[in-house]
Specification:
InterPro entries: GAUT, Glyco_trans_8, Nucleotide-diphossugar_trans
Helix content: 40-55%
Pfam families: Glyco_transf_8 (PF01501)
Oligomer: single chain
Organism: Prunus dulcis
CATH architecture of the largest domain: Alpha-Beta Complex
Number of helices: 20
Membrane topology: Single-pass type II membrane protein
CATH superfamily of the largest domain: Spore Coat Polysaccharide Biosynthesis Protein SpsA, Chain A
Distance between the termini: 80 Å
Strand order of the largest sheet: 6-5-4-7-10-9-11
EC number: 2.4.1.-
Number of domains: 2
Number of strands: 12
């Protein structure tokens, strides 16, 4: 770029470097413009020209150098110099948003053929020259179809998981059958538990008595082994294991052939308790035998369910509430502990899906303050699955009897590891309250709550619960895949409540080792039944 001054200083020409194109020519009239003015003009131009050069370079780098005329360059540089931006792209976006909003309020055309993939959609758009409206309809229909398929897949997954959680794994079934056969053929498997000389200790209140009700032999072995190995005084431990009639022989065989000395183990079947008669447990008899209830728990869980009106999470909760274990007499026996063990004063009740990682003898030193049930409250945490539970999570407060008698904000507590003061319990009407509410729920066709052991217990134990430190009992290992491993390692008792039990294939792999470490894989029965073989 060059400046040319005429000899008479009456004109100034600004040209390109090759001299062929004049960018600007200024003619100076001597009568009207002084030399000072010309000098000032030159100074101003000298100041502005570098900026013009920089803008031209920027535009060139952006591809505007394709322009073949100054008119084109002006159209490109003009808005930049004036602070304006071309908004054609924004107008296109706004127009497309408008079309999307219109399509969202209209019905999808009948018979609209949807492509199977995004690539097919792009190909059809090119071939058929779709307008924006047709494309929007295609996009909406494809999205709704994908959402519907994903939703159906999620419900199918939940159903399969429910069936897996309700089934008995092949290895555990094998273990029960082999041990039952051993009971009939091996005298050592039938030996008395405990030996006659230790029978008085079954009612000695100076010992630490644990009660476990289960028909899962492998799970029972883990509970007992973990408690004994974690105890500072294993010689003070007495385990009372209650099982059903069909599992009794196998359960007895296991603990007869695999003693946990110096701890003491007693195995009893429900058929061996004289107190468990129809007269004493009429409601539970009805729960087990009523056809409507049995169909509810063993029938088709999809039939009659409006899946379009429920979320997968709500459906999962309903499936969990329909576990067949909830109508098992074995699962309800905990409410009869004072009658089943009339000589005991204080016991710790354990579920079969727990692992003991710390000495539990301090539990017997906890002052329950005249309460019956020492339990961890489940309304003090942040997670929604386990530790944020109140009565509203368990009961139907649209039912008038529930709304009248219960507080939806009352804190819930956990079964699975409970300290029971049986002496105080026997002075209450807890069992009668439990029965009466069960009867009311049966009369209302299960509309007050879906059957289970916890909801009626929440009512029956109202005013009789003493909260204990949450570190004693960590819940949720059968629900939450993202459970913190450090917290698990610190807990005294970890509880695999939920569907993903550690003995099932659907159990969480990173949480399973806390349970499997207490399985004796060298045991012939465990090895021959291929327990948890990968």
């Amino acid at each position: 770029m060059q400046l040319h001054f005429s000899p008479s200083m009456r004109s100034i020409t600004i040209s390109s470097s090759n001299g062929f194109i004049d960018l600007m020519k200024i003619k100076v009239a001597a009568r009207h413009i002084s030399y000072r003015t010309v000098f000032h003009t030159i100074l101003i131009l000298a100041f502005l020209l570098p900026f013009v050069f920089i803008l031209t370079a920027v535009v060139t780098l952006e591809g505007v150098n394709k322009c073949s005329s100054f008119d084109c360059l002006g159209r490109r540089l003009g808005p930049r110099l004036l602070g304006r931006v071309d908004d054609s792209g924004q107008r296109l976006v706004r127009d497309f948003y408008k079309i999307l909003n219109q399509v969202n309020t209209e019905e999808i055309p009948a018979g609209l053929k949807l492509p199977d993939s995004f690539n097919q959609l792009v190909s059809e758009m090119k071939n058929n020259q779709y307008d924006a409206r047709t494309f929007a309809f295609m996009l909406r229909a494809m999205m709704e179809n994908f959402e519907r398929e994903i939703r159906e897949s999620k419900f199918s997954e939940l159903m399969n998981k429910h069936f897996a959680a309700s089934s008995v794994p092949k290895g555990i079934h094998c273990l029960s059958l082999r041990l039952t056969d051993e009971y009939s053929s091996n005298a050592h498997a039938r030996k008395q538990l405990p030996p006659p000389e230790l029978l008085p200790l079954l009612s000695d209140n100076s010992y630490h008595h644990f009660i476990l009700s289960t028909d899962n032999i492998l799970a029972a072995s883990v509970v007992v082994a973990s408690a004994v190995q974690s105890s500072l005084k294993p010689e003070k431990i007495v385990f009372h294991i209650i099982t059903d009639k069909k599992t009794y022989a196998g359960m007895h065989s296991w603990f007869a052939l695999n003693p946990v000395s110096p701890a003491i183990v007693e195995v009893k079947g429900v058929h061996q308790f004289d107190w468990l008669t129809r007269e004493n447990v009429p409601v539970l008899e009805a729960v087990e035998n009523q056809n409507g209830i049995r169909n509810y728990y063993h029938g088709n869980h999809i039939a009659g369910a409006n899946l379009s009106a429920t979320t997968p999470r709500t459906f999962a909760s309903k499936l969990q509430a329909r576990s067949p274990k909830y109508i098992s007499l074995l699962n309800h026996l905990r409410i009869y502990i004072p009658e089943l063990f009339p000589n005991l004063d204080k016991v710790v009740f354990l579920d079969d899906d727990v692992v003991i990682q710390r000495d539990l003898s301090p539990l017997w030193e906890i002052d329950l303050g005249g309460k019956v049930n020492g339990a961890v409250e489940t309304c003090r945490g942040e997670d929604e699955w386990v530790m944020s539970k109140r009565f509203r999570n368990y009961f139907n407060f649209s039912h008038p009897l529930v709304a009248k008698n219960l507080d939806p904000e009352e804190c819930a507590w956990a079964y699975g590891m409970n300290i029971f003061d049986l002496s105080t319990w026997r002075k209450t009407n807890i069992r009668e309250t439990y029965h009466s509410w069960l009867k009311e729920n049966l009369k209302s066709n299960l509309t007050m709550w879906k059957l289970g052991t916890l909801p009626p217990a929440l009512i029956a134990f109202r005013g009789h619960v003493h909260p204990i430190d949450p570190s004693w009992h960590m819940l949720g290992l059968g629900y939450q895949n993202k459970t913190n491993l450090e917290s698990v390692a610190r807990a005294a008792v970890i509880h695999y409540n939920g569907q993903s039990k550690p003995w099932l294939q659907i159990g969480f792999e990173h949480l399973r080792p806390f349970w499997t470490k207490y399985i004796n894989y060298s045991n012939d029965f465990v090895r021959n039944c291929h327990i948890l073989d990968s």
